[in-house]
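pasting for the record
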Amino acid sequence: MSHLHTQVKQGKQHVNSHEKHETIEQSVCSVCNNRRPKFEWKRDFTYAELHAATRGFSPTNYLSEGGFGAVFKGEFCGHKIAVKQHKCENHKGEKEFKSEVDALSKARHENVVMLLGSCTEGNNRLLVYEYVCNGSLNQHLSEHSRKLLSWQDRLKVADGAAKGLLYLHENNIIHRDMTPNNILLTHDNKVLLGDFGLARTLIEDSSYSTDCVGNLAYMAPEYAEFGKVSMKTDVYSFGVVLLQLITGLRTTDKRVGEKGLVGWARPLLREGKCQSLIDGRMINSHDCHQLYWMSRLAENCLLRDPHKRLHMSRVSL
């Protein structure tokens, strides 16, 4: 993130050049040794293969439930995989399945979950992704998390999510569902953006009208009110995520009252009272200089006027 990164470097807290240029093929979790598949590992799967890989979609392999289906852990040809069962009970479900395939069929980036293939056998609609070993950001920001996500790890997560979102925008893909649930982490806190059921591709950097779907707390005003979607609506959602990284709060946390997280934080951001935003668990372990710039970045992502919001090229490194 350009503004944040400049300040982070001054604090000597930045991603080193070796880590920054690491390729996907070399990327291995340093804790559990989970390895990312190679670029060219992509294929059509049969239902029988995925049924066997997940042990019959066993409850013990259940990972999560999204808006468009359940996700199960599996293993295929020595690779750990995540299999998403799409609910295609109607035309809308089929449309979301095709959108996810279209959006990610050629997407390859160190901060974007890799689509390995799909299955369209009979009425079955399944997507096969690489397995990300340490759950979602939402789990790690929870007050029930076993281990507190450190300040430096929060900066690392923000940086990785920004890079992934910039890559999508450079390839004319709008994510439309940027939430902590869809930011996946390895054990060493490398970030991969996931769940592209709502993603849309654009011919150019413009906007269009669509049905309002997703989590209202992360929706830009023009999307929630008028169904207007653009890359700047993703930027707004990213700003909400930044607020959560700073505060450690849920968007509906009782401490923010009926205003919600953004409504509660706006006056504090506007008045430069960033110390009033910091997660209480970080009060003695954060960098004040970095907090200031991260708060400024969130404020500029959350501007009501989409034309005044930052472009992801100014947010990402």
